[in-house]
Amino acid sequence: MTSFFRYPAFWVVVSALGGFFLHSYFSLPLFWLVLSLFLFILVAVLSFRRNRLFFWSIIVVWLAAGATVHALSFDLPREMVLREEGKAITIQGNLIEKNNRYFITRISNFPSYSPSLLLRGGDFKPEEWGYRVCIHATVHTFNSCSNPGVVDFRLFWGRKRVPAYLEVESWEVISPPRGWFSLMHRVEEKKRGFLSSWKKELQGEYPWFSALLLGVKEQEFEEKRDLLQEVGIYHAFCVSGLHLALLGGIIWFFLNRITFIRRFSWIGTLFFTFWYLLFCSLSPSSLRAWFFLSLGLGGKIKGRHTLPVSSLLIAFLIMFLLQPEVVYDAGAQLSFASTAGILFLMDYGEKFWDKKHFLLKYLGRGVFLTFSVYVFNLPFLIFWGFSFSSLSLLGNLLVLPLLEAALFLSFLSAFLGGIAFLRPLFAFLLRSALRVSLLISAFLEEYVPHFFWDFSRMQNQLWGWIFWLSLLGFFMFLIRRERKALIRGSVLMSALLVGGLYFFLPPPVEFWVFDVGQGLATGVVEKNTINFIDAGGIIRSYGNTGEAILKKFIHYRSIEEVNHLFLTHSHRDHAAGVEPLLEIFPDLAVLDFPYCPHFSRFPLSAGTQVEVFPIYGRGENDQALVFRLTLPHLRILICGDIEEQGIRQLMEWGEENLKAEVVILPHHGKYVSNVPELLSLCHCEVAVISCGENNYGHPSPKTIELLTELDLPYFITQKDGAICFRPALRSWEVKKFGKGRI
Questions:
Q1: C-alpha span between 162 and 181 (Å, rounded)
Q2: CB atoms < 10 A from the CB of 542, how many?
Q3: How far apart, in whole angstroms, are the C-alpha atoms of residue 163 and residue 165?
């Protein structure tokens, strides 16, 4: 157990994270978590001299602590808020603003880990930041639609500890900000005033100044986001360790030049960097850097040598206990990963560059640092769907020094910009540095050959993992320089790559039932083409599903052509998504009920076809088209919203024409008397119900009861997410996306 005493921070962090994530899948009552926490603390104290028992007791203590943090910060608040779903409530809390959105936090009746609730409606103003308010509103949970390449809003906001939103009816101020909120209110006021004054001085370069110095990204900056990402310098505009290290270094340098306060220079450094942290709105990456700086300075003052990695882990643990949502924050993950890459690998880099020549040393250090960082953070870039550019190396060597100079000038302008005759000089230098940075970036992007991977696309994720594994193998060889290690690493990476191909390389053909809420949208994907049958409608939180879901799926799968779009009928929940698709594919053939008055067959490719059965009933839902899609080893019957009369007409086509292994049940799972007969006639093996939140009672409990009695496997998009059917050898398999996996 000596490894525990040598690296306690590592074991504590791993155990806490293990308990946190385990509890997200296997929830336990809070009482038992707290009881086990105190029980094993007692066991650890009593077994201090017994290494093995002490080790496992501490591990269990931190497992329980991590699980308790999850229960208190995510589970308990979510349960309390969801009990009020759809109700009109009156709630008190503090008003805050983040990224032009308003939230209420420190809500009454939440003693610890109070969640935040998103506010929709209400005429809120930035000047009211931190005020204690009373809000009369209706509680709504975020709609959840899980599809490839599409944000699941319930998951997205839930990971930020925002379990619901409020539709504001009215609100009033109870009291001005107090305590912490009073401090932050003043900071926000000062920040707005500071940025406003420099906006006049810097004019066109102001958006890059505000993003570089404080991470405040305005519309003009966002318009250049693609350029900065393609050159690989976007990270410089996200407040991180680079900013805190530079500011801390400047303050430390000047304070150490003043003899009578030299002993307390570390206090001044932490004080001023903390104020900068507040001005950056306590962003996770800057908070991580401040904790890391504090631990490093504290160890230096006390004369204790603490491993930098241990300081990094302790900083993470503190952040985790204060803000558990940091575990899910992409910026925080990238910040920790980049710092870990520098700490772990820079020690090995000293032998790879020439220390006698400044230029060679600078180039060698820059190259090795860039590769070190990407070894650690590339998996997070791929996972979160960010991007990678081969221009990163040149960007870090040529543009980043200019941005560091601009950042240095920005800090000086904050301290000395109040001096009248210096302000124009700082403005000129800042404009020049930022302008040259953008000019060099534009030149690199246009004239230097490079590759750019957008990891929001599925095929680029595959190439990204291949590149990362190659990079990892190269570094393993550089560090170890052992033939056996290289062989073992190559075998392991090959096995991982072959396994990964199964998940990332799509089969020749797939059939998707998309999760579009209370509606229906399906698609047949073959290589880089897709044919849709229905296109969904308009749902809460997402808006038009054609825009918010289907177009994003097309981007994710790098689809270049949409050949046909078939419609069962013209109701909005099946057809509203057509218009956004026509915007990007104006020649798209839309085939609906008037176009197909008789039975028709449409070959989609050599191995797939769609058969069209027109239904002529009295009701609107029974004046429709029913489709049977034939894929290799799989037939799918798509029934639209037909009712009892429509089902009766459909069955007149006979068993041979309607055989289908998969049936998309009619009308979102509504029960009608002849549904059992239809399922029997089709020889159905799997049923799918496409539905979302609704006031119609879909799917009907009688339908679910029928499927259970028939022992027929079924999927519901509302609880399972998007459903994918794909060939497997001479059969087919089913995959659920997002909300559950099988």
A1: 19
A2: 21
A3: 7
Q: Are 693 and 517 in contact (CB under 8 A)?
A: yes
Per DSSP, which regions of 386-427 are E strands? Answer: 387-389
Q: And the tokens for 180?
A: 């912490």
Please compute, for residue 601, the number of CA atoms within 13 A of its CA located in the half-sphere on the CB side.
6
Q: d(Cα 210, Cα 733) in Å, to the nearest integer?
A: 51
**Residue 144 pLDDT:** 92
Instruction: Determine the 3-state secondary structure of 465 from DSSP.
Output: helix
Looking at the DSSP bridge assignments, the partners of residue 132 are: 94, 175
Q: Are 287 and 294 in contact (CB under 8 A)?
A: no
Domain 84-178 has CATH 2.40.50.140: yes
Q: At what angle do helices 330-349 and 358-383 cross, to 10 degrees?
A: 150
Predicted local distance difference test score (pLDDT) of residue 4 = 58
Contact present, 622 and 615 (Cβ < 8 Å): yes
Q: Are 288 and 319 in contact (CB under 8 A)?
A: yes
**Whole-number Å distance between alpha carbons of 14 and 272:** 32
Dihedral through CA 9, CA 14, CA 20, CA 22, nearest 10? -160
Displacement of CA 37 from its chain's centroid (Å): 32
* CB neighbourhood size of 24 (10 A): 14
* DSSP secondary structure letter of residue 73: I
pLDDT at 741: 38
Two tokens, residue 152:
């699941």
Q: CA 535, CA 544: separation in Å to the nearest integer?
A: 10
Low-confidence ranges of the chain (pLDDT < 70): 1-6, 111, 300-306, 345-366, 476-505, 740-742
Domain extents in the chain: 2-80, 84-178, 186-456, 460-504, 509-737
Nearest of 310, 131, 285 to residue 214 by alpha carbon: 285
Nearest C-alpha neighbor of 715 from the set 687, 679, 692, 680: 687
CA distance 464 to 374: 11
Angle at 216 between CA 214 and CA 218, to 5 degrees: 150
State the CATH architecture for 509-737: 4-Layer Sandwich (3.60)
Q: Return d(Cα 464, Cα 175) in angstroms, integer.
A: 52
Of 632, 624, 570, 639, the C-alpha closest to 604 is 632
Q: How far is CA 260 from CA 256, 272, 607, in A?
A: 9, 18, 84
pLDDT, residue 48, reads: 73
